[in-house]
TrEMBL record:
Gene3D superfamilies: Transcription Factor, Ets-1. GO terms for cellular component: nucleus. This is Sterile alpha motif domain-containing protein 13 isoform X1. Pfam families: SAM_1. One of its GO terms (biological process) is negative regulation of DNA-templated transcription. One of its GO terms (molecular function) is chromatin binding. Residues 45-93 form the SAM domain. PANTHER family: ATHERIN-RELATED, POLYCOMB GROUP PROTEIN.
Amino acid sequence: MRGVAEVKEPCSLPMLSVDMENKENGSVGVKNSLENGRPPDPADWAVMDVVNYFRTAGFEEQANAFQEQEIDGKSLLLMTRNDVLTGLQLKLGPALKIYEYHVKPLQTKHLKNSSS
């Protein structure tokens, strides 16, 4: 029995530190974001985080354009409507949805979080 307890202890320690990090951050959405494998703040996303975000959102085909253009989180937050509609060479329909329902809300949310 003692050997089993020794094995369990190291396994539970990393989980404790992860929980503490989540609580210190104070953001309600942290757990969901971390479960998706992306940092909670889009400004910290790597190119593949952006690509995976759009794949998860149902834009499998369009997600590749973000990878080809090397759009990371900081770039994503700087994108204008015109950048999304013309710079990524996407079809107009998906490009409009990507900007209106994803890029713009991410930018707005980031601005709110940054100012508070």
